[in-house]
Amino acid sequence: ILADLANVDNSRERASKLLQWLISPVPSRTFFSETWEKKPILIQRKNPDYYKGLFSTAEFDRILREEDVQYGVNLDVTSYTNGRRETHNPPGRALPYNVWGFYKSGCSLRLLNPQAFSSTVWNILSILQENFGSMAGANIYLTPPGTQGFAPHYDDIEAFVVQLEGKKHWRVYNPRVEDEVLPVFSSPNFNEADIGKPILEVVLEAGDLLYFPRGFIHQGDCLPDAHSLHITISSYQKNSWGDLLQRMLPAALEIAVEEDTEFRRGLPLDYLTYMGVQNSDKDDPRRQQFFSQIETLMKKLTTYCPVDAAVDQKARDFLHDCLPPMLTPVELASSVKGARTRWEGGQVTDESLDINTQTRVRLLRAGCARLCSDGEAVHLYYTTANSRVYHQEELQSFEVKAEFTDAVEFLIHSYPKFVTVGSFPCDSTEDFVSEIVLAELLFEKGIIHTSEPL
Amino acid sequence: ILADLANVDNSRERASKLLQWLISPVPSRTFFSETWEKKPILIQRKNPDYYKGLFSTAEFDRILREEDVQYGVNLDVTSYTNGRRETHNPPGRALPYNVWGFYKSGCSLRLLNPQAFSSTVWNILSILQENFGSMAGANIYLTPPGTQGFAPHYDDIEAFVVQLEGKKHWRVYNPRVEDEVLPVFSSPNFNEADIGKPILEVVLEAGDLLYFPRGFIHQGDCLPDAHSLHITISSYQKNSWGDLLQRMLPAALEIAVEEDTEFRRGLPLDYLTYMGVQNSDKDDPRRQQFFSQIETLMKKLTTYCPVDAAVDQKARDFLHDCLPPMLTPVELASSVKGARTRWEGGQVTDESLDINTQTRVRLLRAGCARLCSDGEAVHLYYTTANSRVYHQEELQSFEVKAEFTDAVEFLIHSYPKFVTVGSFPCDSTEDFVSEIVLAELLFEKGIIHTSEPL
Question: Where is the JmjC domain (chains A, B) (predicted)?
């Protein structure tokens, strides 16, 4: 699949094809209208090789041997026996001898942030994130036969459980009350007595997929005859309307206070004598007036909501959360990362980029850069300098001068089409200096690539 | 006036009588409907003794001699010459020799927080604050003949300029633009060129009053033949509808997210591709849908606004800002501060309070205590332990147990009537233990006093 996807020219299309493959044969459209955020869905394939190559226990072993895996940071050792959930992380580096000892004694292994160690997982998540407009994360779970690693609980993310090896017995339960539907926080560990009867009980086999929305309680345990390896792909943490409003309301009020005297007018002189909890049982007409003034102001506040600016705040957070793109060979050859400049025979060769007005360029990925205004200046934020470890790097951006904003916007909106540097809408001089300066800057930051290797 | 006010039994009435005296002959009602927060008003009395006893330059001198007045903290030395505003505070204690030297050389003196040094100012402000439901503050300004101490500017408070001695030439200017009407912040110093023509120009003489709302630019200078001493009484800083909303909105959203799934639902999968500043020029029907969803949620948010709880937050801040009450002789004799218990002839005498079911009590002042709920527990906040220096003490409160809340509320709402301890609505045992325990607690904290000295 990933080899096929590398041939898909448009990163948005690539993302939606990958998601389609993940949930096939259910059509994406049906999935998002009927299942997403609504209910669990089980896809059984009778095809143990369907997700082959994504990740394996052999790869897990390689990572333990070759990479700096730290207990508590990259790896958790857990058990759940007789209703008791325990973590057994020793301090320090997780070495194979020790880790496999835990496993043999019946502990589950949870590999956190596997995209930092596995290029395939990195690739998959970095493609998928563009589909969700929200970070795509993952954990990998390896569970010995006849054991369970975790207590029943619910999470604050949308979960795709992808069974890679062996099998696992899953039970999924409805949210217990309305307040736990699409929750904002993950739950504590539950007792069996707390959670009622499962609405779904199944043995997931290699090649199968189980999806459930945040708030659905779940627990998985291994049958006596088989181990289980699965990866849980997650998304939509803190990506609700409430999260957007949280960004927007303080700004909305600030604008309202600035622009509208009604918001700056003093509270009624005597409001403390009829408002407040100690007066809430009073049947005072001034209370009604007070409430109706609040209502009037709230209505007005709606008109001051800086919706696009608040979306940009969310977008900036998302761009910071993003994995950097993992380049296809074609992308590599045509971007700064694959530029031919090299040390050869005692000489630096091919050092010039030679971008000219005829060079055709586009964004490296649809979502790899974004123009946001902070009220005064316009900045271009980009993901190409991010790290594979969550937030290891600061979010990168630079100020886009007024004469370049139209050109950058033009580039963003032209994707997936390549456009010539000469066609950038800058105030052109005869020799297109501005256009070439801008293209060189964007190319050097890895934000754009060219239609043909330079 | 203050001697008369001491005979007014109801602290709210006392407060409104004091304000009425301040702005007399304009009736309070007319003042608040036509002038307050709207426009300047000038009251000329031809009675230099009208405000006599409030404060004097002799008192200023006494304070410098007897109190620990610190430059920069309690006293500013300023000048405004040739359009240039300067502060001349040396470090350390402001001693008379030094201060009067500055004055003789043409500097203005501004005494900050004068209520900490003058009991009369303390008394006046502590009474007035109850009228405003917002802190009443003051500064005292002493200006030598023929000088000006401050550049033209506007403030973020409602200002009552009370001329105590001499005279001062005032010019008041309209807010320059709509955004500066009832402003949230004070202005920088202006140049004459910035401010246009005054709408009011007058020589204020002892006994006169000038009021202007926040946002009105003003400057005052002394005529060559007379010095000026005035006190500016201020109120309504950060006491607008916007300030209340600022407290309320985060809580409203938290409640909405907790109670309403609509707020927890995920943002549309692709919203980043059509929302945000870089897409704001797009004519996309999904943008309209997005805006209309925001509108729907904002409308719903209104219904989740915890108005009374937000008022309680403001009330708590106000109670913390409040000056402690300055007791009248009658109040002193009937409150814990005047309790007879004393050291006499090697013995502690009169040590018992003897509160019984027949004892008649009420709050010391209408606004001296307030019952607020923080969602889980109910607390009684009170001002009687505050200090005369702004926020020198923490806001005092204690938790009111469930069995006492009705009784405390009953007490608060009974003011100005005295009620017997036996009439407190507690679940009474035969010997009224609870009622007496509560009354003793409130008496000891200085929150209630008795109808007759104990």
Answer: 107-252
